[in-house]
């Protein structure tokens, strides 16, 4: 926000000039920043979010691979219900591998 403040301008003055319709003196970039927030998350928010998403990813991959391996290796597990669970684990694994990285926050 400091990059949008003019010389000797406080946050209140910035808010006033970007929200006062009778005296509107706000650029498009300033207005977008005011309404939508910064384009990048600060590093102190990126790191915990990334760690949580990485733990979810690794837990999902390990758990779904374990389910698939157990069902394939043990002949007693070859039932219709377990084939259905195998299918669900495989689809969840594919979603984790190919779809998870689209949800990671943008650093740049």
TrEMBL record:
Keyword Glycoprotein tagged: no
**Highest taxon of source:** Eukaryota
Its membrane topology, per UniProt?
Multi-pass membrane protein
Q: For the G-protein coupled receptors family 1 profile domain, which residue ranges apply?
A: 63-108
Q: Where are the transmembrane segments?
A: 46-71, 83-102
Protein name as catalogued:
Neuropeptides capa receptor-like
**Entry-linked InterPro entries:** GPCR_Rhodpsn, GPCR_Rhodpsn_7TM
One Pfam family this chain carries?
7tm_1
């Amino acid at each position: 926000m400091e990059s949008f403040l003019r010389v000797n301008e406080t946050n209140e003055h910035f808010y006033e000039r970007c929200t006062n319709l009778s005296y509107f003196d706000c650029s498009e970039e300033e207005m977008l920043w005011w309404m939508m927030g910064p384009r990048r998350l600060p590093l102190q928010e990126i790191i915990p979010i990334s760690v949580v998403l990485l733990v979810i990813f690794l837990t999902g991959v390990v758990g779904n691979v374990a389910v698939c391996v157990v069902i394939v290796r043990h002949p007693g597990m070859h039932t219709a219900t377990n084939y259905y669970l195998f299918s669900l684990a495989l689809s969840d694994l594919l979603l984790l591998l190919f779809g998870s990285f689209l949800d990671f926050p943008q650093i740049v």
